[in-house]
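User: Just a sanity check before I run the rest of the batch. Below are the structure tokens for the first item. I only need the designed sequence back.
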């Protein structure tokens, strides 16, 4: 009872829980929309949509690192109680982003008109491409300011308000998206993301961007660019990593295969979103901690504590996706059943990586930019080699792409642990115990049940029993102090 009381008291003060629960709910709603869209939109148009999203993703880097610098330095300024510097960063970031994205909008829309002017309304698939590309600069402008607003609210310590607004706006966006998708088909695929971003900007405005003034201090913009550029490069490499599998499919297969691969992508997103959200909240916390005390040992100890929690969540999320996705695909997305095996393969490798997300954030907090970029380059190389080699040498299928991607993420996770241990003379066994051990203790029995027990529902019950026991033991260790 004493341990339970201590655990409950700690959980009450853990403000990341409501944010995480809200994220789970929002992820579930996005998942519902994705499932619903795949019941209406065939593989090829879905592949076109995925291709346009890749272009949209690369557009985010037009902010040249200003937003990256803001997300890193703003919470540290708050930790130092330097509110003047914090406001300066916010004003400069908003001004620069408005300038850049307005220019991109004009240039890209002109290119779309020039490239597709003879095909719009004549060729259906070319029209789909034209519409998707035309939406890219609009969506990235809205999404960037939505992300900045949400992050600012959290960095100001209003985690619960972020959670409430996030849940409400996602629910409204889901309803809007379902209605538009029902009547517009392919064109409705963009409705939920766009409406969610618009609602987010409006609802977060009071606690994030209200009172922001345009600040055309170009020398300060340059400082932010120089400070954030290494983070931007690292993030760009990460984007390439996350899209290597898609590039491999487009190179060696076709758009229709990319459409089927959206199912593994759904699994990836669903599995990684919860630990990623926890990691983002803890990233803010360790940034505040390091900004206040400048103590690397304390930073690593706290990161290890948070990592143990993240690893438990990652293990549970991995098993959830591993079991649930095939059922969902079979009953709700029969056109996409070829993607179920690839989904199960991918989520296991990504689950291992997700346990070490906070370890990766340490390099950012300490501004170890060269190591940060080197880590990401290594993951990119791993992914390119494994994904391409397996497709070329073994089989041209999305299953091989999933295996290669999963292996690359697992190796990257190990690389982070090794580098942290060597650089800071920190026990590697302790890092592994905080990260991999809780995950393996949950996932290994669950996958074994799935392989050995033919009845999937009995396997699920057995897995839930195992997860409960493992979580109880590890939580007891985490909160024993």
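Assistant: Here's the designed sequence for the first item:
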């Amino acid at each position: 009872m004493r341990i339970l009381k201590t655990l409950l008291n700690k959980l009450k003060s853990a403000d990341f829980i409501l944010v995480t629960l809200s994220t789970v709910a929002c992820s579930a709603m996005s998942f519902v929309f994705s499932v619903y869209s795949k019941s209406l939109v065939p593989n090829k148009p879905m592949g076109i949509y995925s291709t346009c999203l890749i272009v949209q993703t690369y557009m985010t880097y037009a902010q040249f690192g200003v937003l990256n610098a803001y997300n890193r330095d703003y919470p540290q300024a708050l930790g130092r109680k330097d509110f003047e510097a914090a406001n300066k960063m916010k004003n400069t970031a908003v001004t620069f982003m408005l300038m850049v994205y307005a220019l991109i909008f004009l240039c890209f829309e002109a290119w779309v008109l020039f490239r597709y002017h003879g095909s719009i309304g004549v060729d259906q698939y070319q029209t789909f491409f034209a519409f998707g590309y035309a939406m890219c600069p609009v969506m990235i402008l809205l999404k960037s300011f939505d992300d900045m607003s949400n992050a600012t609210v959290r960095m100001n310590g209003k985690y619960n308000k972020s959670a409430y607004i996030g849940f409400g706006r996602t629910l409204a966006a889901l309803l809007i998206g379902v209605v538009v998708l029902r009547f517009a088909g392919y064109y409705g695929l963009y409705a939920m993301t766009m409406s969610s971003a618009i609602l987010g900007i409006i609802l977060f405005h009071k606690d994030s961007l209200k009172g922001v003034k345009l600040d055309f201090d170009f020398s300060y913009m340059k400082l932010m660019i120089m400070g954030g550029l290494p983070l931007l490069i690292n993030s760009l490499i990460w984007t390439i990593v996350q899209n290597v599998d898609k590039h491999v499919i487009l190179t060696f297969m076709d758009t229709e295969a990319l459409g089927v691969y959206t199912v593994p992508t759904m699994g990836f997103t669903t599995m990684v979103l919860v630990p990623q959200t926890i990691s983002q909240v803890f990233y803010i916390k360790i940034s505040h901690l390091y900004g206040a005390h400048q103590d690397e040992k304390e930073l690593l100890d706290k990161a290890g504590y948070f990592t143990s929690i993240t690893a438990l969540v990652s293990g549970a999320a991995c098993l959830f996706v591993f079991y649930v996705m095939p059922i969902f695909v079979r009953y709700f997305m029969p056109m996409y059943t070829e993607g179920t095996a690839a989904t199960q393969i991918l989520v296991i490798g990504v689950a291992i990586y997700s346990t070490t997300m906070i370890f990766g954030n340490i390099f950012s907090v300490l501004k170890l930019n060269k190591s940060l970029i080197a880590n990401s380059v290594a993951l990119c190389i791993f992914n390119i080699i494994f994904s391409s080699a397996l497709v070329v040498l073994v089989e041209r299928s999305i299953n091989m792409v999933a295996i290669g991607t999963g292996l690359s993420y697992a190796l990257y996770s190990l690389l982070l642990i090794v580098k942290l241990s060597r650089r800071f003379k920190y026990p590697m066994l302790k890092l592994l115990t905080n990260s991999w051990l809780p995950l393996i203790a949950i996932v290994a029995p669950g996958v074994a049940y799935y392989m050995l027990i033919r009845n999937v529902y009995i396997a699920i019950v057995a897995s839930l029993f195992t997860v409960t026991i493992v979580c109880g033991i590890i939580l007891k260790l985490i909160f024993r102090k």
